[in-house]
Design goal:
Blueprint (H helix, E strand, L loop, with lengths): L1 H33 L9 H18 L2
Helix pairs in contact: 1-2
Length: about 60
């Protein structure tokens, strides 16, 4: 029974790590996109807010 339990935990851990890595990758893509918003556009202030939030979340996921 313990071998099965360990295998299940291992599988779940592998899924968790893969999901975490996918989220990190997506946040990096979002950050890159937000950094391209031009200052003279009406979207710029909101993009800066979202950029700050995305960078904070990325830092949290990278811990």
């Amino acid at each position: 029974m313990s071998l099965l339990a360990n295998a299940n935990y291992s599988d779940l851990e592998e899924i968790r790590v893969a999901a975490r890595n996918r989220i990190i990758s997506q946040l990096q893509a979002i950050i890159a996109r937000l950094e391209t918003v031009e200052p003279q556009t009406t979207a710029y202030p909101r993009a800066r807010q979202l950029l700050s939030s995305a960078k904070q979340k990325l830092t949290e996921f990278q811990k």
